[in-house]
Specification:
Helix content is 59%, strand content 0%. The chain is built from 2 helices and no strands. It is elongated.
C-alpha cells in the first residue's frame, strides 16, 4: 500500500477542481438553454398577438372563431 491512500480520510474528501468545472459547465448549459427557450417563447407570443389582431368583419370575432348567439332569459 502507498502512504497516500492511507492518509486520505473518506469523511473529508471533496470533489475538487474536476467537480467544480463540471458544475460550471452544467450551469452555463442551463443558462444557454433558458435564454434560447425565452427567445422561442417570445416568438410564439408575437405570433399569437398577430393572430389576435385579425378580426372577422362578419361577427367581430377573431378569424376562425364561430359566432355564438347569446340567449337572454
Amino acid at each position: 500500500m502507498s502512504g497516500v491512500a492511507i492518509s486520505l480520510d473518506p469523511n473529508q474528501v471533496s470533489p475538487g477542481l474536476l467537480g467544480f468545472i463540471i458544475v460550471c459547465i452544467l450551469g452555463v448549459a442551463v443558462w444557454l438553454l433558458c435564454r434560447n427557450m425565452g427567445k422561442h417563447l417570445n416568438k410564439l407570443d408575437a405570433e399569437y398577438q398577430a393572430g389576435q389582431t385579425e378580426q372577422d368583419p362578419d361577427n367581430g370575432q377573431p378569424a376562425g372563431v364561430p359566432a355564438v348567439p347569446v340567449q337572454q332569459k
